[in-house]
Amino acid sequence: MKIFNLVDNGSAKYLQLAESVKQNIRMGKLLPGDPLPSVKAFSEDMGLNRHTIMKAFAELIAEGWVESQQRIGYSVGSKIPIEGSKTAAPKQQVHAKFDFRLIRAGTALSATPATHFTYNYSGGQPDLSKFPFNEFKRHMSSTLARPNIEQFSYGETKGVPELIQQIQTYLRKSRSITNRDIIITNGSQEALYIVAQLLLQKGEQVAVEALGYPPAMAVFKNAGANLAAIKQDVKGIIPEDLEYKILNGNIKLIYLTPLHQYPTTVTLPIARRMAVYQLASKYKIPIIEDDYDHEFHYRSQPLAPMASDDPQQLVIYLSTFSKVMFPGARIGILAVSDTLAKAIAEYRMMISHKGNVLMQLALAKWMESGGFERHLKRMTRIYMARRDHAIKFLEQLEVFDFICPDGGMALWVKLKNTSINTAILATQAKQHGIYLQHEKQYHTTPCNNQNNHLRIGFASMPEQKFSEGLSIVANLIAQNK
After folding, report:
1. What is the Cα 102 distance to its own chain's centre?
2. Domain boundaries, the chain
3. Strand partners, 320
4. What is the assigned CATH class of domain 1-94?
5. Could you tell me which of 212, 120, 127, 277 has the C-alpha nearest to residue 440?
6. 149-153, 158-162, 287-291, range with the lowest pLDDT
7. How far apart are CA 115 and CA 125, in angstroms?
8. pLDDT category, 3, cuts 50, 70, 90?
């Protein structure tokens, strides 16, 4: 069966094909945004040469019937010419769509994901091209070749025992975290959501860093909580301001990214960590410690997590494998007290009976074989080299001020020309295939936004590509003077 039948109107073949596409749109068989077959598919199906088909598409694009997107292909135009076109098949009764009563809102979806840009400077994006997929595939295949059938059924809501054991060993050796129950979640965002739902009531407050991680803020707001922004300086959050907000508010939870603070990359020093912990203990407030990229630290050993010295077990330790592996793995880690672990597992049952067993078992095998550790060491070397290159290149550009971070996957930079609005700059950069994250996105209190910082990820791109994109950004900055 052919994709389209040519409209035999005596005109050239490319015009016949163009008219055929138009007719399908007019009749409602194709709707705005629908993808069209590739040039190759058209050629093989209709026996037309590539030149004829490309000429037909050029005609349709010129008239507004079809749109073309690089690396995606052709699709029906979002605003097709009126010319009697329809959005439903003829003689079909049209009903008004049901109007749902939405009582909650989620996070707005991006029209174009960061990964679709030529230059993606997203701060937490790993280089997925470096992941050893073939090596990991062998552990997937091994799991399927000799499956434990019972594990693929319901149960084991906390995660498969094999992976829990590997993670307990990993956290003990790499972060000195012991005596904790481990729960494996569908990424760290699910973990945040569950904890917020369990610990927060409407109208209560969560103490957060004034410049912080937007997805976490969204979760707390969704639970009905208000955000208490704790002031920061060059060393991180200020404990004195935290105590002031505790005494003058209704704070029931503290959320921190003490290592490589998100987005400023600052590491909270020991003295301040101890002061925060003492306040949490004194006022009986739990702490969520989001340790999202602990692995990538380049100057000596990273500070041990707050959860490693937590006699009261009031720290809820959160981490993820998205940066070491890939975001699609959806492996989040909660290390918590046994009583809280039970509550989390029971609440999670309402969301999902269990996680991805195949992924968890394969990861456990990979960790046991030593492959995980080898990959981690390799990526740490690569990311450190990319950080060093990023620092040198930004210094050459002479348009940013910044402090070299001890670790992480991004830089927090300030434009020397503070009259330039980084939100506007980011919008301009998109027109050149460049994705930038700007200061406005991270402010808990919007009125504090100065619009002069960018968070620039250096991990996901090779050095040359990193430099190419930032050279374009530097030119845009020069044009805005």
Report:
1. 25
2. 1-94, 114-128+374-479, 133-369
3. 332
4. mainly alpha
5. 212
6. 149-153
7. 9
8. low
Q: Which of 459, 464, 470, 406 is nearest to 432 (CA)?
A: 470
Instruction: Give the residue with greater pLDDT, 320 vs 51.
Output: 320
| Amino acid, single-letter form, for residue 90 | P
Both tokens of 419, joined, read 């009259």
Helix (H) or strand (E) holding 237: strand 236-237
Q: At 38, is the pLDDT very low, low, confident or very high (cuts 50, 70, 90)?
A: confident
| pLDDT exceeds 90 at position 338 | yes
Is the separation of the CB atoms in 423 and 451 below 8 Å?
yes
**Residue 189 pLDDT:** 96
Residue 398, sorted as left (phi over 0), alpha (psi -120 to 50) or beta, turns out to be: left
Residue 400 corresponds to which tokens in the numbers above? 């940013």
The answer as to CATH 3.20.20.80 being correct for domain 114-128+374-479 is no
Across 112-146, b (16+ Cβ under 10 Å) vs e yields eebeebebbbbbbbbbeebbeeeebeebbeebeee
Extract the runs of DSSP E, i.e. beta strands, from 124-178.
none
**Please, what is the average pLDDT of the chain?**
92
CATH architecture of 133-369: 3-Layer(aba) Sandwich (3.40)
Query: Per-residue pLDDT for 308 more than 90?
Result: yes
- Decide: helix, strand or coil at residue 255: strand
